[in-house]
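SAMPLE LOG
Freezer: B-3
Tube label: C17
Construct: single chain, 353 aa
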Amino acid sequence: MSVPRATLLVASLLACSGPSAETVRQPSLAPGDAPPGMVWVPGGEYQMGGDDAHASDVERPVHRVRVDGFFLDAHTVTNARFEEFVQATGYVTVAERTPDVEGLMAQLPPGTAAPDAALLVPGSLVFTPIATAVDLRDWSRWWSWAPGADWRHPEGPQSSIEGKQDHPVVHVAWEDAVAWATWAGRRLPTEAEWEFAARGGAERSPHTWGDAAHDPAQPQAHIYEGTFPAHAAAPTRVGRYPPNGYGLHDMSGNVWQWTLDWYRPDTYAVDDRRGVVVNPTGPAASLDPRTEGQPARVLRGGSYLCNDAYCRGYRVSARSPGAPDSGTSHIGFRTVMTVEQWRARKGSQGGPA
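STRUCTURE (predicted):
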């Protein structure tokens, strides 16, 4: 879960283009005809949502969904790929921008004093381990606002991504992910596409690797081992763990992944009343009574901070709200390319590229 950037900053200060809904199509593709670094996901009908012992209310009810086939990045976008984009476009991420004072004050109670301007500097939220026992319901205990933290400096201004070009880019807000996807001729996956792909053809298994529980002796995903949040942790290189049935890596753990959809806790209840839903793109707007006035997009996949005592977000049906204006040290993304986008790209370049 992530919260608005302004909210994160205030808490720290106080402490110190979507697809259309049509019929499912399965276009014919030549063997090996796929964008570099992407995997073909055949599409089809499946049961979306969770009904296992660990499923939360926002994963219910299980309902029928149908999606078209699509290409999906084999792994999350890396620092190297994101750096190519920044060098080509000069793009500046949300974390690298000075916080908007007016936007910040609009989220605070009337009469709240404006924070010291010297503290309103670019930055992001970084995981900070704490050795003492903590209330696991209070995420603020292990997250710290770090001035100067961004995708180039994932742990703060003294850190770097040197030697980590094959690690997932982090500290990317939703709009940063959309900007990269647009530049690359792609888009973010819908929540329905993401879950279909994550299941890898094993429709009702709770994990991307199947029915078995996570085994620290033979890990299938990068999640938090030991007592949370007692020790430091960070993302690992992409593709380190075995792929799922479709050949996709890290659909569980490592970093949370942005999707196209707005978040609502009752999305599945609404969809269930519609029968089989074809190519759903989520609700028209975000609405969550628990965080009224704070819009959120859907995050999927869990991260290196998921631990069974605290977070089972690595389960294939788990879903979490994420503030679109916030990137943290455990959020990244991967992208979709449709067959139409791929054919257009090949045509414009005179062949695959």
